[in-house]
Amino acid sequence: MAWRVRAFDGFEAWGWRMHVHSRTPSILIIEDEPILQLAYLDMIESWNWKSAGTAATMPAALLLVETSSFDAAILDGELRGESSEPVAERLLELHLPFVTISATPRSRLCSCQCAGSCVLSKPVREDALRHELETALKGDC
C-alpha cells in the first residue's frame, strides 16, 4: 500500500508500508542529494531488495522513521547542512540498523552516527554498501 504525506514546511515524504517479517530487505533512504537517492534506489533494486521510501530533510526523515516499516536505513551524515544526529538517535532508540554515509570525516560525526552503525565515506562503492547493509541487517555493526 503506497502512501504520501506532507511533512513540515511543505516537504514531502513517501514510502510503502511493508510487512515486518518480509524476506526481502526493505531499506529506508535518507539522503539530501537527489542523484544519490536515485543511485541508492538503483542499487537496492538491482539486489532485488525493496525501498521503504526516501527523505531529503530532517522533518521528512523523522516522519518516515516513525511511520514506515523497514529493516534498515541508509543515513546521510548531513541533511541540507545540518547533522543527521536526531535521526541516528531515533534509529538507535528503535533498535533499527543503519549505515551512515557521509562526506564528513568520521571524526566530525556525532557518536550516535557511528555507534551501532557502519560508516562509509562518500563516494561509496556499491559492493561496500551492500556488504555493510547485510552486516547491519545481521546485527553485526
UniProtKB/TrEMBL annotation:
Q: Which residues carry this modification: 4-aspartylphosphate?
A: D76
Q: Does the keyword Transport apply?
A: no
Give the GO biological process terms: phosphorelay signal transduction system
Q: Which UniProt keywords apply?
A: Phosphoprotein
Taxonomy, superkingdom: Bacteria
Q: Where is the Response regulatory domain?
A: 26-137
Q: What is this protein called?
A: Response regulator
Organism, scientific name: Histidinibacterium aquaticum
